[in-house]
Amino acid sequence: MKYTVIGTGFSGLSTAAYLAKEGHEVHVFEKNDTIGGRARQFKDKGYTFDMGPSWYWMPDVFDKFFKDFDKNPKDYYDLIELNPGFQIIFPEAHTLKLSSNWNEVLALFESYEPGSSKKLLSFMEEAEFKYNFGINKLVYEPGVSLKEVCTSEIISNVFRLQIFKSYRKHVAKYFKNPFLIALLEFPVLFLGTAPAKTPAMYSLMAYSGIKQGTFYPMGGFAKVIDGMAQICKDLGVKFHLNSEIKEIVVENKKVVSIKTDSKEYKVDSLICSADYHHIDKEILPAHLSNYSEKYWDKRVLSPSCLIFYVGVNKKIDKLEHHNLFFDEDIDVHTNEIYSTKQWPKKPLFYACCPSKTDPSVAPEDKENLFFLIPIAPGMEDTDAIRKTYFSKIIKRMERYCGQEIEKYIEYNRSYCINDFIKDYNSYKGNAYGLANTLSQTANLKPKIVNKHIDNLFYAGQLTVPGPGVPPSIISGNVVANYVMNQRSK
Length: 489
Ligand SMILES: Cc1cc2nc3c(=O)[nH]c(=O)nc-3n(C[C@H](O)[C@H](O)[C@H](O)COP(=O)(O)OP(=O)(O)OC[C@H]3O[C@@H](n4cnc5c(N)ncnc54)[C@H](O)[C@@H]3O)c2cc1C
Known about the structure:
The protein is of the alpha/beta class. The protein folds into 3 domains: about 1-80 and about 220-300 and about 435-489, FAD/NAD(P)-binding domain (3-Layer(bba) Sandwich), CATH 3.50.50.60; about 100-210, no CATH class; about 300-425, Guanine Nucleotide Dissociation Inhibitor, domain 2. It is built from 16 helices and 19 strands. The protein has helices spanning about 10-20, 60-65, 100-110, 115-140, 150-155, 160, 165-175, 180-185, 205-210, 220-235, 275-285, 295-300, 330-340, 385-400, 415-425, 470-489; strands at about 1-5, 25-30, 40-45, 45-50, 80, 85-90, 95-100, 215, 240, 245-250, 255-260, 265, 270, 305-310, 320-325, 350, 365-375, 410-415, 455-460. The protein has a 7-stranded mixed β-sheet with strand order 7-6-15-16-17-14-18. A hairpin with a 5-residue loop joins strand 6 and strand 7. Helix 1 (about 10-20) runs parallel beside helix 10 (about 220-235). The longest helix is centred in the N-terminal third of the chain and has 23 residues, at about 115-140. The radius of gyration is 22 Å and the shape is globular. The structure holds flavin-adenine dinucleotide (FAD). The site of flavin-adenine dinucleotide has 37 residues, from helix 1, strand 14 and helix 16.
C-alpha cells in the first residue's frame, strides 16, 4: 500500500515511521529544505541553534517511540538529566532552582512553606496517577468516537482525573506560598493556556517536569529529529524536500493526487501533518474542508512567540541551562496573551543557555542563548517591535546576571509571527498549535478524519492529543494506526 504524508515535523516523521514499519511505501513532502518542522536547527558563525523545542519532558514517550522500532534513544543521542532542571527568577532577583534530586525538592518546599513537603508527596501521587492513566488510556485514542471516552474505566475515574476542576484551584488547595504556586503552575503553560483555564487533570505535566525531571539530548533537539528521520530512511521512506504542496486534487470523495508548483504526484491515502488550518482552509476547496473560518477563529490557540537566537562572546555566570524570568506579574502577561491580546507591557521571558551543558553548540568561552517571549497569535510583527523587546529583556538579564552582555553579542537573529507563517504556513503565526482547554481536549479537538474525503487524514499539534513534542510523536502513531485499520476494514 502507498501512503503520502505532508510535513516532516515530529508528527509527520512519526506517522511515516509507523506506516513504513508495516511494510508500506511512504512518501513525505516538505516545503522547507530541511527535515524537522518547528524543531529544525540552524548553524551560523560557530553557533548551533535549535529553532523550537528545548524542554525534553515525558522521556517515556520518546523511549516508547524508539522501542517500537527495536531501538533506544541512546542509539541516536546521549540524553542527560539537567541539574538543576531549571531556575525561576522572581522579582528582586529571588531565584528558585529545581534540583533533579527528589529529596532536595522536598526540602526546598519545606523551606518555603513548612508542612508543604508532605502535601507535595500527595499532589505528586495524584499527578502520577493522572500521568499514567493519561498515557496508557487516553492519549493514544484517535478522538473520533464518543465510545473512546465513555468506557467504564474512564467514567469511574472521572473525578479522580479532575477533568472539570481548574488547575489553579487544584494547586491552591495544596499550597499557599506564591513561589511554590508559580513553580507548580509553570508546567501547564506548555499546554498553551492559563492555569485558571486548564483542567486539573494536567497536573500530570507537573509530575513530568518536577518529578520525572528535565532532560537534554546532547547536540540539541535536532538529534531526536535526526534519529527519527534515520529510522524512516532505514525503513525506505522517501523524502521530497523543497516540495510545498499547493493543491490537493479530489475526485469522487477521494484524494487522487497532490500538486506542487511544478509537479503532480498520485496519491492513494494522504496524511496531512502540516498545520491543520492551512490544509483545511488554504489548500482544500471550501466545500471539502472540515471546519468554517468562524470555527477556527473561535479556537483558543497556544501562544505565538518572539524568539532571539543569540551568540555572546563571553561566559555568563548566573545562568543555568533553563532560566524563567518571572520577575514581572505573570497574571498581567497571561491576560495580555489570552484576553486583551496585545504586546505585553512587561513581558515574562524564557532564556535557554544550552552551552552551559553542551560545548558543541557554541565556540569555546562563548555562550549560546535562546530567548522566548510568549505573545498572542496574530499580533502585528515588525522589526521595530522586535528591537524594542530585545532591549527590554537584555537589560533585565544584565541586571540579574550583574554582567554586561549586550555589547558582547556577536550574533543575533530574531524570529516571530511573520516567520512562523512564512516557514510553516502557521495559522495566525501560532507556535505550539491549539491550547488544551477543556473544550479543546480529546474528542473536542479538530478531528483526524476529513468528513468529506475518505482517504484524507490529519496529524500534528492542532489535533489529538495536542501541542508539544511528545504529543506530536503520539499523534503520528495514532493516525498511522487509524489509517491502517481503516484500510484493512
Ligand atoms: C519556539 C517553540 C518552542 C517549543 N518548545 C517546546 C519544548 O520545549 N518542548 C516541547 O515538547 N515542545 C515544544 N514546542 C512545541 C513542539 O515543537 C511542537 O508541538 C511540535 O514540534 C509540532 O510538530 P508538528 O509535526 O505537529 O508540526 P511542525 O513541526 O510544524 O511540522 C509541520 C511541517 O509541515 C510543513 N508544511 C507546512 N505546510 C506545508 C505544505 N503546504 N507542503 C509541504 N509541507 C508543509 C512545515 O514546513 C513543517 O515542517 C515548541 C514549539 C516552538 C515553535
